[in-house]
Amino acid sequence: MLVTWKYRPRGTFLDSLDPRSRWITSFLILFAMVPIWHPYVMVGYFCLSMTQFFLSRLTWQETKRVWFFIIFLIVIVIGLNAIITGRGGPGEIQRLEPHVLWERSFNILGATWTPNITVEKIGFGITQMFRMMGTAVLFFIIPWTIDPSKYGVTFSGMGIPYRFAFSMDLAFRFVPTLARDFATTVDSQRARGYEVERLEGGLITQIRRVAPLIVPVVMNAIVNGEDITNAMDLRCFGQDKRTWIGKLQYRTRDYFWIGIGVAVFLGALYLNWGLNLENFFVPTWFYGLFGVVP
User: Does pTM top 0.70 for this prediction?
Assistant: First the structure.
């Protein structure tokens, strides 16, 4: 049986919104930020996403694992890559006059590699982290704040074909189901004396020892998938367009919420084409932090 994320009604403004308006506004804000690399706009984007997070009233205890994963991924993978290579963004970062803070040459297999860290790369890395963090916060709260029973009717109500809408519904439920099965398997193996916390030895040995955890989870996922497929076949899924038990209807607050997304989108277009603020740059005060004169 499919389970869901730990959704619970909190009586917030976000809970009262039509899920379609939540998705539409989130995508409008995301698309608005795609062509812009201005550091101040990225900070504003992050603050806008955090405002929605605070409106959701999610607690640290509920989301701390996700926060750790997001921060690790963004800081280590994206941030360090941007600071070391300066890549992953607009070409302006490569064309700016570099102010080198650190540089060293390495000889690798006869080839010379000379990485460096510049003020421009650090500024770009911070801007990139604000961009990725804003995007992550904008969307990761959705599983905790939207009733999972409304996923299918939400996607269908947004004009998505009902087959794809149903697939999205199942996909959102599959991950927590897999997590539930894995936790159950770990507890079962512990009850049988399997010491999960003491996986020692080399890489091959650890992979072999973790098999009692992975194999049951994978097999159970396959069996559950077949059960769902059989249930859908018995109900003649795909023979005709299906209807949904739940009904969604836009209200004034939903139009207001979508209006915020439209305003942000139009504002971003104005910043981009009207004020030409889409390009990346390094503020003068940022050079001063490193004692460098631009």
Answer: yes
